[in-house]
């Protein structure tokens, strides 16, 4: 089996495992109201529920006030044109529709019910959608084949008064039009002069062609091809939509159509464009190969064939991803927020121009960090925004909402757009964006990460994910025999280094590590005998590997107490220059925004000076995640410094204010006040203002450790860490019995540390 087909098989298996993992699929329903007491239940259901029922009966519009309708979209398909896979049926389309639900949620905070309808007859399909429409604030039609898709969408638009869009038509048209405007500008070509070949004459292709024409493309300059070749005057039995694109030409093949053309837009099937065809196009050709999952010509082949090609695909693993994910979350967000009666041309054009403009503006640091690039700017490799760009939700949704209001189809108005922008940004905090950003940064420059306890299932699984995802080059530390036995027992195949401190192969390593240990610790209680013995133990071997550059990062501590694993690390690894203390911080991914707790694991009873160091290190580390740190120095009193603990915290705050006046830090303050803008308003003198803190520095280890352990124990939020701060090497100690996700996340942070170290 070739490496590529092995990789493909591994990827296919990972895709099945991902979907099959409990809870199966990708979407679940979570109650959004308290439901623990008898009173809650009597409000949520009978008798309380009758009150909003009757309120809606009296005023139907109030359904937006009392139910989830206003933020609920139906993603509906009959499975007749699923991606580029064709008519695979409603059940088989469900993973795509659930996936779309996931994207709606993570990018725009919109809830989705995916609905797969077993109905190919357009009229019956329409009746079904109409019958269930009252449930929803909007409807996204998906992967319905042409020509039925045109009729279905047209009638539903006429007969329903909620935002409705066939995404394969208009989402694709909007995103690709924005990309086209920008690509033409970079290529120095004019839309009314270019010759375009559109391969595919289905839902996406026809809608794209129409939108490009409305932007100035000359219909005479389009050659459209379907599965039978160019749509020209010789063709018979064409659908009404194809009739609009008949070309007066003798050209009948894609190959001939492409000769001398400026732009190719592929919305057909994978691998139908050859290098020869690409070579026959005009200078600086624009190629949008948008079929999913395989483009009409692969990115690598296209750029290897021609240096001057301006290339986009529908895929996330190459530059210029033209995919409707850049549009539908934000178009529906804007439309829902003004209760638009539909999605009209003005709203679509507003989205096109907003998207095109974002790509031309300087790219925010957060986006660069997310993609681990020093610089990206408008040009050949970047002419359409990237999916993890926060500006999408503000700029596109606002543009769409404004267009709906101005074109008179908004059911309600937004009065204050600044406030609306803040609400949109707030929505974006409610997901695992930070984790995705960190993983993307790691993937861009993966490092060698050695994982202790290589014989544990969770460690093996984490290593597998790190390798498959390309986040790191993992290796396992431990007994080779035991690790191999366990891999076999768990059915895990992993082709990665196993480092056994006792292996004969590591004789030379043991020798040099012993010398280092001896040099560092001979006046601190380690004699020669001990140094010989210790280098055979993995708790010492791992940090020594790191110290010698034999690995880039180390993750240990899965099965032992934190203190016992930390001891050899502190004995071997130096502190960062200028740092006196080592401390640990937990990242807590709440449903609103990430919070950071310090010091959760190392300094039992820090002095005021220690707290200052901990706060400084926490500030530095949080900044490295591209988050502005706002620190609250916690106590159980607010700005009164009566108790001894409060006095200590107040003293630390005084030093911080004097020495680092630019730091956003204040206290002593109670956590519920520090996290609540209304409560903060009672202390107008505070450096936090009314903007809640995101970094909580606790007065002692017990309070920090117990606080995060309660959160972890209750599974109230995902926790990542402890992130070890102050050491000169990328090493982190796991919480005992960490989950696979926790290990992967901490290893990801270790890769980022190693990248930072490399840059220095
Ligand atoms: N990147 C993105 O954001 C998006 C990409 N797409 C991709 O576009 C493609 C089409 O989707 P959609 O329009 O919804 O599907 P449809 O089923 O509506 O249309 C498919 C079209 O492709 C044509 N076609 C099939 N094989 C060939 C071929 N060898 N040469 C030329 N044309 C061919 C069909 O021709 P005929 O009419 O003769 O049957 C038909 O016109 C899919 O691969 C899909 O993944 C779609 C939406 C968004
Ligand atoms: C992206 C998408 O909607 C498709 O390929 O069908
Ligand atoms: Mg689709």
Automatic annotation (TrEMBL):
The UniProt entry, under InterPro entries, shows: Aminoacid_DH-like_N_sf (IPR046346), Malate_Decarboxylase (IPR051674), Malic_enzyme_CS (IPR015884), Malic_N_dom (IPR012301), Malic_N_dom_sf (IPR037062), Malic_NAD-bd (IPR012302), Malic_NAD-bd_bact_type (IPR045213), ME_PTA (IPR012188)
Q: Where is the composition biased (Basic and acidic residues)?
A: 1-27
**Active-site residue list:** 100 (proton acceptor)
Please list where the region (Disordered) is annotated.
1-39
Q: Which coenzymes or cofactors are required?
A: Mn(2+); Mg(2+)
Residues at which NADP(+) binds: 82-89
Organism equals Epilithonimonas hominis
Annotated GO biological process:
malate metabolic process
Family stated for the protein in its record: In the N-terminal section; belongs to the malic enzymes family. In the C-terminal section; belongs to the phosphate acetyltransferase and butyryltransferase family.
Q: Where does a divalent metal cation bind?
A: 142-143, 168, 292
* The protein's name in its UniProt record: Allosteric NADP-dependent malic enzyme
């Amino acid at each position: 089996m070739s490496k590529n087909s092995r990789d493909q098989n591994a990827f296919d298996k990972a895709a099945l495992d991902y979907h099959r993992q409990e809870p199966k699929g990708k979407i679940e329903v979570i109650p959004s109201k308290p439901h623990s007491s008898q009173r809650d239940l009597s409000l949520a259901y009978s008798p309380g529920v009758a009150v909003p029922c009757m309120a809606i009966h009296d005023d139907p519009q109030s359904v937006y006030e009392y139910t989830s309708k206003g933020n609920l979209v139906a993603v509906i398909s009959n499975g007749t044109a699923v991606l580029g896979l064709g008519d695979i049926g409603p059940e088989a389309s469900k993973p795509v529709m659930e996936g779309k639900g996931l994207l709606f949620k993570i990018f725009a905070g919109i809830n989705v019910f995916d609905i797969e309808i077993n109905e190919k007859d357009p009229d019956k399909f329409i009746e079904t959608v109409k019958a269930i429409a009252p449930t929803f604030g909007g409807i996204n039609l998906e992967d319905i084949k042409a020509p039925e898709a045109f009729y279905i969408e047209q009638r539903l638009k006429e007969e329903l008064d909620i935002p409705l869009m066939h995404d394969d038509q208009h989402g694709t048209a909007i995103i690709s039009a924005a990309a086209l405007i920008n690509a033409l500008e970079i290529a120095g070509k004019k839309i009314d002069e270019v010759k375009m070949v559109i391969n595919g004459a289905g839902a996406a292709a026809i809608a794209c062609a129409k939108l490009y024409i409305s932007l100035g493309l000359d219909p005479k300059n389009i050659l459209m091809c379907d599965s039978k070749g160019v749509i020209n005057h010789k063709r018979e039995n064409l659908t009404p939509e194809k009739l609009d694109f008949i070309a007066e030409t003798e050209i009948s093949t894609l190959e001939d159509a492409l000769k001398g053309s400026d732009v190719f837009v592929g919305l057909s099937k994978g691998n139908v464009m050859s290098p020869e065809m690409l070579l026959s196009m005009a200078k600086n050709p624009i190629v949008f190969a948008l079929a999913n999952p395989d483009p009409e010509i692969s990115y690598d082949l296209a750029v290897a064939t021609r240096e001057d090609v301006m290339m986009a695909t529908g895929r996330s693993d190459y530059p210029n991803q033209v995919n409707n994910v850049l549009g539908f979350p934000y178009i529906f967000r804007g439309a829902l927020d003004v209760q638009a009666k539909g999605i009209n041309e003005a709203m679509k054009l507003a989205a096109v121009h907003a998207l095109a403009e974002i790509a031309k503006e300087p790219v925010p640091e957060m986006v660069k960090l997310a993609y681990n690039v020093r610089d990206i700017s408008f040009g050949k490799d970047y002419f359409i925004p990237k999916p993890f760009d926060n500006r999408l939700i503000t700029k596109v949704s606002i543009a769409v909402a404004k267009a709906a209001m101005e074109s008179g189809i908004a059911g309600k108005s937004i009065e204050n757009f600044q406030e609306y922008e803040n609400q949109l940004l707030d929505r974006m905090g409610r997901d695992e964006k930070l984790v995705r950003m960190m993983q993307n940064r790691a993937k861009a420059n993966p490092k060698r990460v050695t994982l202790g306890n290589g014989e544990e299932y969770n460690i093996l699984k984490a290593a597998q994910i790190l390798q498959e995802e390309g986040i790191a080059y993992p290796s396992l530390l431990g007994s080779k025999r035991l690790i191999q036995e366990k891999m076999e027992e768990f059915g895990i195949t992993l082709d990665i280094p196993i480092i056994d401190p006792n292996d004969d192969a590591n004789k030379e390593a043991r020798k040099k590590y012993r010398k280092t240990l001896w040099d560092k610790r001979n006046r601190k209680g380690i004699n020669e005998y001990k140094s010989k013995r210790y280098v055979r133990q993995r708790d010492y071997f791992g940090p020594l590997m790191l110290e010698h550059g034999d690995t880039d990062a180390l993750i240990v501590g899965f099965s032992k107490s934190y203190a016992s694993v930390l001891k050899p690390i502190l004995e071997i690894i130096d502190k960062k220059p200028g740092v006196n203390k080592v401390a640990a911080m937990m990242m807590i991914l709440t449903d609103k925004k990430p919070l950071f707790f310090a010091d959760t694991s190392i300094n039992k009873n820090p002095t005021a000076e220690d707290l200052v160091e901990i706060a400084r290190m926490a500030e530095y580390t949080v900044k490295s995640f591209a988050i502005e740190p706002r620190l609250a120095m916690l106590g159980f009193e607010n700005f009164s410094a009566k108790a001894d603990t409060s006095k200590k915290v107040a003293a630390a705050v005084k030093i911080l204010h004097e020495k680092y006046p630019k730091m956003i830090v204040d206290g002593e303050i109670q956590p519920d006040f520090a996290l609540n803008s209304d409560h903060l308003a009672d202390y107008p003198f505070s450096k936090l203002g009314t903007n809640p803190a995101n970094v909580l520095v606790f007065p002692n280890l017990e309070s920090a450790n117990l606080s995060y352990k309660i959160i972890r124990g209750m599974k109230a939020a995902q926790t990542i860490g402890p992130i070890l701060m102050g050491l000169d090497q990328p090493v982190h100690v796991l919480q005992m019995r960490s989950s696979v996700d926790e290990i992967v996340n901490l290893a990801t942070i270790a890769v980022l540390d190693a990248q930072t170290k490399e840059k220095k």
